[in-house]
Design a protein that fits this description.
75% helix, binds fe (ii) ion, iron, oxidoreductase, Ferritin
């Protein structure tokens, strides 16, 4: 009984493993968990929008479902890290995502915007870790998040360009074919 009370006391005041882990770093990581879970939820909504029978875009469903799973894993990774450092995990409410999308491009643009915000927060968390002289947290963010984030932003931007190019090129191509077989005179006799 006495040891249980001691364990509770220790949980309230400090973890045994906690060492040079600033409160400010813990707050930044908890904020990051919330952003990752928000991203997980928004990608899930996107995925299942494109899975609807009246939308039926299996490739886009697959892409966003994978993204959703990855964001979930990111949140778990940070939660594991906070426990490893003897911090306290604080889960906060996540926002209701948009339920439908006009087009694949619309969803990709929203995803790009979201990934940039997530990256902004990661860079902030890294700056907080540096300011608090926490090389372990810097290394954690660098090796698991920062490069992946830059790669993801590039991939989304590439997809948006490809969609825009195909929209534009395809319509130009079809219009050109139409003109080829049409009477080209603007002033028909
Ligand atoms: Fe993420």
């Amino acid at each position: 009984m006495k040891s249980v009370c001691w364990l509770n006391f220790r949980r309230v005041f400090s973890s045994m493993v906690r060492q040079h882990f600033a409160k400010e770093c813990e707050v930044a990581l908890n904020k990051q968990i919330n952003l990752e879970l928000n991203a997980f939820y928004r990608y899930l909504a996107m995925a299942f929008h494109f899975n609807r029978s009246d939308v039926a875009s299996p490739g886009t469903f697959r892409f966003f479902k994978t993204a959703s799973d990855e964001e979930h894993q990111h949140a778990i990774k940070i939660m594991e890290y906070i426990n490893k450092r003897g911090g306290d995990i604080k889960l906060m409410p996540i926002e209701e995502p948009k339920q439908s999308y006009e087009s694949i491009k619309d969803a990709m643009l929203e995803a790009l915007d979201m990934e940039k915000s997530v990256n902004e927060a990661l860079l902030e968390a890294h700056a907080i870790a540096s300011a608090n002289n926490d090389p372990n947290m810097c290394e954690f963010l660098e090796s698991h998040f920062l490069q992946e984030q830059v790669d993801g932003i590039k991939q989304l931007a590439d997809y948006i360009t490809q969609i825009e190019t195909s929209e534009c090129e395809l319509s130009n191509y079809l219009f050109d074919k139409y003109l080829l077989h049409e009477d080209q005179s603007m002033h028909k006799k």
